[in-house]
UniProtKB/TrEMBL annotation:
The keyword Lyase applies. One of its GO terms (molecular function) is 2-dehydro-3-deoxy-phosphogluconate aldolase activity. Pathway: Carbohydrate acid metabolism; 2-dehydro-3-deoxy-D-gluconate degradation; D-glyceraldehyde 3-phosphate and pyruvate from 2-dehydro-3-deoxy-D-gluconate: step 2/2. This is 2-dehydro-3-deoxy-phosphogluconate aldolase. It is an enzyme of class 4 (lyase). It comes from Sulfitobacter noctilucicola. Belongs to the KHG/KDPG aldolase family. It catalyses: 2-dehydro-3-deoxy-6-phospho-D-gluconate = D-glyceraldehyde 3-phosphate + pyruvate. NCBIfam families: eda (TIGR01182), PRK05718.1 (NF004325). Its EC number is 4.1.2.14. Keywords: Carbohydrate metabolism, Lyase, Schiff base. InterPro entries: Aldlse_KDPG_KHG (IPR000887), Aldolase_TIM (IPR013785), KDPG/KHG_AS_1 (IPR031337), KDPG/KHG_AS_2 (IPR031338).
Length: 213
């Protein structure tokens, strides 16, 4: 792809830390302390999934946290893009991609990490200017061997694998030449968030931020 790629900004975000926490937050009161704990722990790039009724309010609160970069995950429709942008999301993540969705993020000027799980899906996105993709669902789609396979003929595409990544398998993904970062929910487990265990979450984030890549 030429220099008019749509992934320039997303790639910069993915370079900031080895892990992007994937956050499912039910209570807006948890948003700020959770984001602050993750940023303190060394994970400044945060993906808030649009899978809870509170998600847009959570994005708005987290966007106030200094040093953080708050994006919206689970973008599926153009309406999701508008809502996420209005809430203050500065980038978007989607499990897959449609032309309608990418038309919307491009029109909104929202950096995007679109999902792909096969060579054809990745090639379609590459043809449209996206060379930094979410590999989703990573473990279910073949994990590291699949990334190695796709990376043979398509080394110009870089991935953020997400889905089934954990502290035990993260290093194996990050060691791949076509992986820049990985997404995972393990740094903010639901029970620790509900308990307000911000120090424990900060410690999980710190360990994740120190994963080699
Ligand atoms: O809702 C979305 O848009 C998503 O991004 C789905 C997430 O990628 C996975 O839920 C994270 O997977 P785990 O780390 O295995 O929990």
């Amino acid at each position: 792809m030429t220099s008019n790629t749509h992934s320039v900004e997303t790639r910069k975000l993915c370079a900031l830390a080895p892990i992007i926490p994937v956050l499912v937050v039910d209570d807006v009161a948890h948003a700020r302390p959770l984001a602050e704990a993750l940023v303190r722990g060394g994970l400044p790039v945060l993906e808030v999934t649009l899978r809870t009724p509170a998600a847009l309010d959570v994005i708005a609160e987290m966007a106030k946290v200094e040093g953080g970069h708050v994006g919206a995950g689970t973008l599926v429709t153009p309406a999701d893009v508008t809502a996420a942008k209005n809430a203050g999301a500065t980038f978007g993540v989607s499990p897959g991609a449609t032309d309608a969705l990418l038309d919307a993020t491009e029109a909104a000027g929202m950096p995007m990490l679109p999902g792909a799980a096969t060579a054809s899906e990745a090639m379609r996105l590459l043809a449209r200017g996206y060379d930094m993709l979410k590999f989703f669902p990573a473990e279910a789609s073949g994990g590291v061997p699949a990334l190695k396979g796709i990376g043979g003929p398509l080394p110009q595409i870089t991935f953020c694998p997400t889905g089934g990544i954990n502290p035990d398998n993260a290093a194996g993904y990050l060691a791949q030449p076509n992986v820049l970062c990985a997404g995972g929910s393990w740094v903010a487990p639901g029970e620790l968030v509900k308990a307000g265990a911000w120090d424990q979450i900060e410690a999980l984030a710190r360990a994740a931020s120190q994963l080699p890549r």
